[in-house]
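Worked Example 4.2. Consider the chain below.
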Amino acid sequence: MDDKVVSPSSQLGAADTAYKLIRVLAFTMVLSVMSVTMFNIALTDISIEFSLSVAQVSWVSTAYLVVYALGTLTYGKLVNMFHLRHLVVVGLLIFAMGSLVGFTAQSYYVVVLGRIVQAAGAAVVPAMSTIIPVRYFSQEKRGYALGITFTGLAVGNAIGPVISAAVVSFAEWRWLFAVPILTLTTLPFYLKYLGRDQLKKDDKIDYLGGGLLALFVIFLMMSITQAKILYFVAAAVLFILFIVRSRLTSTPFIPLQLFHSKGYAIGLVILVLMQGIGFSFPFLTPLLLQQVNDLSAGIVGFMLVPAAICSAFLGRRIGKIVDAHGNHFVYSISASLLVITFMAMSIWAGSHHYWIAAILIVGTVSQMSLQISLINSVSRSLAPEYTGVGMGLFSTLNFMSGAISASFYSILLDQGARTAWNGINANLEASVFSNMYFVFAVMHILLLVIFHYLYKVPVPKVRTANKQSH
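Applying the procedure from the previous section yields the following structure tokens:
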């Protein structure tokens, strides 16, 4: 195959376009992340207006999360069949359409429908957040690109609760649906900066396999959120059927060749555990401050803002450090800081809330650094044709691990703690929190060992389907 000669000016133009594109993506990420949790603060108002129980109104958030997770994987699958610019346009238009449905809703079922349609469109954003850095940036610059997208993630987490509280305070909760419509302002930029990708015309979607996977995720989430063993059994059966279907068809919804790469397969396991542990920052810490420190919800929200702001400011710089010093260096430093963070949280759980907020800053920034280095490492184990579905699955498991860990932590909190595993912390009321933080510290030590063993040398890429093993 002949090599194409690319002029320096063309290279500079492509690089400039890529940097502009990643900044537009970061802004879109802000709005997408805000939409994930924005309605949590309005659930009480919605339940009162429609006379709903807590379990019923929770579907405003649960339905969004399920569709969001499935949609992320689906968009990752579609990038080999359709131009990314077309998928972005369709996704953001569906996102806006769902917002209009919810904004005009006069019944609870229409509210849920609006959230489902919103999620079906918004899912294109997290899919892009991993695919665009991989496709448009070289390995040497990919950390910088991921740092910018995670800056958008951090900003969305920081201002989401603030904007949500402001909207609900001064207007009706339906106005929360209006905020995501701002994503339409990004469409001209995506059409300008996104090129026409090389497509696989012979690629097909396994609709049966995709349907089995969707039902598996739904029943798994229901088994966790509603704690019913019957749903878990149904999820297990559906997962087995999905595996059987994937082995029987020539075009599985998730190519099994993905898991032939040790770097990718074990990377997914590390991701699930790492994200599950990391979700303790936005989930467990507020409960600690409310239940043990007796703080109001407003003050607790204020305690979380500094950590999110620091993550937003440091995201791009961390990406540059990843490019300059490598994934091993950043992962090692970040994991070590998280071990120290969780040990500190275990020791001082129940102490003054300003001290907890300071520890939280270190933990949140380290968690973001860990994500950037892990995504960068895993992306290098994927062949180009598997980038879309591979990184889509990566993002899907990212969301699912958060939802699963939240339910798991809730069960542990309900059971309480009979003994304190960390003898330094004498606050018996905070024992259950202290114990969990102690376990998290130990788990990060184990994950660090696994990461170093797995990625100490460049991992082989996933073999393409038409290549034979030797």
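Confidence is low (pLDDT under 50) at residues 1-12, 463-470. The chain has 18 helices and no strands. Compare this with Example 4.1 before moving on.
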